[in-house]
Description:
By secondary structure, the protein is mainly α.
Amino acid sequence: MDSNLQDQHLIALLDRIAARTGADARTADGEAALRELYDLTSSRMFGLAMRVVSNRDWAEDVLQETYLNIWRIAGDYRAALSPPLAWMGVIVRSRALDFRRRRTSERADIAVELDDALRETIPGDSPDPMDTSQASETAWALHECLRKLEAKQREVVSLAYLRDMSHGELAEQLKLPLGTVKTWIRRGIEQLRGCMGRFA
């Protein structure tokens, strides 16, 4: 199929997706159009997502968000302004950049909280607070405090901090609701902060 014919076909699919509201038959036709659009374009959109996020799992999440977004905003597409693949490419890139920012922010928040908890255990008037003996004492104290956490909470905090995993990745790996993961991390870090303070 040449590019002009392909564009016309993709535009027709977007029109069908946009027209899905109303009768049940139109909704079913919109879903069929979205499936066909996905089949025709997903490999190219996946490649674009991979170039932005550089991780297969993340790119798959971006792809899912992209087509959900297309389902919602297909009516906003204007053929006179851009070809359909270019319009879809902008959505993929935007979703991918948002995803990368969210993940970086989550990881940074977890790391900062735990770093703060550790920093509070090191006396400020020490001439060199991170000398070898103090660092090993802090590591031992952290190990002891981690042992006092409940098993699941310890696992979540350890994975978040030591393996650099985001809240979303932890929820998926541990098969837990996202809210539960966030709560356990927050409470775990609070408990660590209190426990580490006793070793200061």
